[in-house]
Amino acid sequence: MRKNLDSQLQRLNNSLILMGSLCEDNLDNVFKSFKERDRELALSVYRADYDIDTKARDIETLCLNIILHEQPVATDLLVVSATLKMVADLERIGNQTSDIAQIVMGFDYNHEGEDVNLLYSMAKEATSMVKLAIDSFVRRDMDLAKSVLRQDNAVDEYFSMVRKSLILQARNCEKDTELSLDVIMVAKYLERIGDHACNIAKWVSYVVTGKISTIGDLTL
Prior knowledge:
Blueprint: H1 2-36, H2 39-70, H3 74-105, H4 114-139, H5 142-171, H6 177-209, H7 215-218
Helix pairs in contact: 1-2, 1-3, 1-4, 2-3, 3-6, 4-5, 4-6, 5-6
């Protein structure tokens, strides 16, 4: 019985790592497509969201089968329940990355302002947060989980800077409304991706400590 449970938990762990890797790759590729003005690459990211959604359903099914048939307790149950939560956050990261890809496919590249440069920097921070959150799960590393929460401040600050830049340009009539909307939506999706990375870090803390921590607990 224990051997079968261990095998199922290892399969679950590997599946979550694979899903996280898919999310990382999509994030990397969507901003590579943005920088290189590669609409075909953006389209491939948009379509890849289906693979992430499929992986999410597979992991959810595996979690439920483990609960029903293996009846895990203690730490094993913590892992399974936290995995269900992390899958939801990873799926949202995938969805929001796909939303960014859809914007990139129709983006007006005639404009190259400070707000676009800020988006690149913001994307770098958000992508780093996702990678750190997944690494913290793989290693069961509380220090990495805490670093994700600290890095979220930088993402929030970049969002504020993008917003202020757009307001200034609007006052000076330097940019059309549709382009401004594209930029602010990409920034908002990145902010949400950072929030989901923070959620993953909190669930890693739950697996390690057995307690549900707040952001304040992890940033002390």
